[in-house]
Amino acid sequence: YGGDVEHLRYAKSQLTVPLVRGDFIVHPLQISEASINGADAILLVAGACLPDLEDFLNIASLTGLECIVEVHTQLEMEFAVEAGATILLCTNLDRRTNTVVPGTAEMLRQQLPDFIITVAGGEISSAGECWDLLDEGFDAVMLGRTLFNTRHGEELIKEIRSRKADQAMRFFRG
User: Fold this and answer.
1) Beta partners for residue 68, in sequence order
2) Is the dihedral of CA 86, 87, 91, 96 positive or negative?
3) Within 10 A of 139 (CB to CB), how many other CB atoms are there?
4) Is 149 strand, coil or helix?
5) What is the Cα–Cα distance from 71 to 100, expressed in whole angstroms?
6) What are the C-alpha distances in Å from 136 to residues 22, 127, 168, 169?
7) Phi, psi values for residue 64, rounded to 5°
8) From its phi and psi, is residue 122 left (phi > 0), alpha (psi between -120 and 50) or beta?
9) Neighbour-count burial of 97, counting CB atoms closer than 10 A to its CB (0-12 exposed, 13-18 middle, 19+ buried)
10) Contact 32, 63 (CB under 8 A)
11) 104/122 Cα distance (integer angstroms)
């Protein structure tokens, strides 16, 4: 958040993974700006753009961007699905109070149809938490602050991925 689009452009020139612009999108020009500067997707915080959410989803689609819509409440989730969102970040972080409310992401996930891609977020700090959320039916997890606040981010990602590799090896061994 609060990043410069130059950072996005630089990251695009150095990386091959999809890039998400994670600033608070509150104006349509920010969506075009993200597209022009190399973003593959944008994060739309439902609580910050609820009245404009459907328009923002349509603008993003027209500019070739995917949208990850962050939701923290039942109302935000229902509105996002009705507006056409297909990727939801269900988060434990309540941005109004900047507090973590454990279990919120799981509660929201249980109410979503299977065709919605779900991402869990909100102060996930261990591989075990990631695995539990994936077992709950989430398609992915967003680590965000956890990676920024640790010197061991690479090790955490390797540990998370190790379970997937271990499961794949067990599958092939029969």
Assistant:
1) 43
2) negative
3) 15
4) coil
5) 13
6) 25, 14, 19, 22
7) 85, 20
8) left
9) exposed
10) yes
11) 9
Please report, as a single letter, which amino acid is at residue 24: F
pLDDT beneath 70: ranges in the chain? 1-2, 164-174
Phi-psi group of 86: left, alpha or beta (phi > 0 → left; psi -120 to 50 → alpha; rest → beta): alpha
Cβ contact 76:46 at 8 Å: yes
Would you say 31 and 3 are in contact if contact means Cβ atoms under 8 Å apart?
A: no
Answer yes or no: are the C-beta atoms of 80 and 46 closer than 8 Å.
Answer: yes
Residue 25: burial class (beta carbons within 10 Å; 0-12, 13-18, 19+): buried
Question: Could you tell me the pTM of the whole model?
Answer: 0.87
Amino acid at position 84, single letter: G
Tell me if 45 sits within 8 A of 24, measured CB to CB. yes
Chain Cα centroid distance, residue 84: 16
C-alpha torsion angle, residues 59, 62, 67, 71 (rounded to 10): 30
Q: Please tell me whether residue 106 adopts helix, strand or coil conformation.
A: helix
Q: How many angstroms separate the CA atoms of 39 and 167, rounded?
A: 32
User: Taking CA 104 as the corner, what is the angle to CA 160 and CA 55, rounded to the nearest 5 degrees?
Assistant: 95
- Model pLDDT, residue 166: 56
Distance CA 19, CA 7 (A): 11
174/149 Cα distance (integer angstroms): 40
